[in-house]
Amino acid sequence: MSDDNTSGVKTPVWYWIVAVLAVLWNGFGAFDYYMTQSRNADYLAAFTPEQLAYFTSFPTWFSAVWALSVFGALLGSLLLLLRNGLAIPVFILATLCYAIALVYNFGLSGGMEIMGVAGVITSLVIGLILIGLLILARWGKARGILT
Q1: 13 neighbors 20 (Cβ within 8 angstroms)
Q2: Which of 21, 66, 97, 128 has its CA 20 to 30 A from that of 103?
Q3: Backbone angles phi, psi at 45, to 5 degrees
């Protein structure tokens, strides 16, 4: 299912698979953000009381940075599907915001004690996926897949 874009470059099938998986992955991130910020009791029931207190105590600026990261990653993934070169600056913004969130979570606010090693590993995996999507967008732009 490779097809030509406006520059005549074939888009590999694996690119479409990765882009769809990225939308699903980052869609879950957006869902997580929404459910946490809306204080959905059923969703938050999976967390310990300490984790719940931690998640609900984030300052407003942090919630904004988190939102930019999550929704930027989702938008960047959608732009990958649309083969739009704006995916690159959107992923750069999302990655920078994610880095700020990591510093706050694990360096400044005590998140390491609340989330433990599993939380750190999960956060690092999320960050690596985000960096990978940025690399994919830059690769796609260089090959003429993104316009």
Answers
A1: no
A2: 21
A3: -65, -20
Half-sphere exposure of 123 (CA within 13 A, CB side): 20
CB atoms within 10 A of CB 4: 9
Residue 11 belongs to what H/E stretch?
Answer: strand 10-11
Measure the CA–CA gap between 135 and 64, rounded to whole angstroms. 25
- Spatial distance between the Cα atoms of 45 and 48, rounded to a whole number of angstroms: 8
Cross-strand pairs, 3: 11
Assigned token pair, 115:
């989330």
Residue type, 39: R
pTM, 2 dp: 0.89
> Percentages helix, strand, coil for the chain, rounded to the nearest 5?
75, 5, 20
The Cα–Cα gap between 75 and 64 comes to: 16
Query: Per-residue pLDDT for the chain (147 aa), expressed as one digit of tens each?
Result: 445 555 567 999 999 999 999 999 999 999 999 998 898 889 888 888 888 888 788 889 989 999 999 999 999 999 999 999 999 999 999 999 999 998 888 877 777 677 777 778 888 999 999 999 999 999 999 999 999
